[in-house]
Amino acid sequence: MITEFKNMPDTSRVLIYQATRELNSDEVSGIIDRANQFLDSWKSHDQDLMACIEVRYNRFVIIAIDESFASVGGCSLDNATRFIKSLQQEFQVALFDRMNFAYKEENDVKSCNRKEFESLIAQGIIHEDTIVFNNLVANKNELNTNWELPFKDSWHARLFTVPQKA
Questions:
Q1: CA 47 – CA 69 distance, rounded (Å)
Q2: What is the full DSSP assignment across the chain?
Q3: pTM for the whole thing?
Q4: For 124-146, what is the mean pLDDT?
Q5: What pLDDT was estimated at residue 63?
Q6: Tell me: the pLDDT tens digits for 55-72?
Q7: Is the pLDDT assigned to residue 156 strictly greater than 70?
């Protein structure tokens, strides 16, 4: 069953898939249409799942699941993975690249591979106050409070060293 993202409880589990490029409006509409079809029939242990989709910044495909309604099992997660892989094929965009890093530059969301990210840090373009995205958040509450963070407060700071300001 499908509901609106805003109506999902804060405890809803979230799955975030980051596109390696910005999606255009037709692609976003197509992804939402296809996802709603998938979510409408998505089940776990023969129980309907209460889930919804949202695409943020034309780059992040986010599925929220209310597990108080029905728990998500391994097979249902496998089905979601197959579905997301089908979106990759259909829309010719990578959604599983964990070495693609997203950050905000002004109000634009950009992404790049690890080597480019390190270069942007070295150049000072990405710094301790640059907003980065923590796609490891587990639920809607964390999505709302800990998804967009300054670099210095994110897991990125444990992986990369930002030069100190002079």
A1: 9
A2: -B--GGGS-TT-EEEEEE-SSPPPHHHHHHHHHHHHHHHHH-EETTEE-EEEEEEETTTEEEEEEETTTSPPPHHHHHHHHHHHHHHHHHHT--S--TTEEEEEETTEEEEEEHHHHHHHHHTTSS-TTSEEE-TT--BHHHHHHHSEEEGGGSTHHHHSPPPPP-
A3: 0.91
A4: 96
A5: 95
A6: 999 999 999 999 887 788
A7: yes
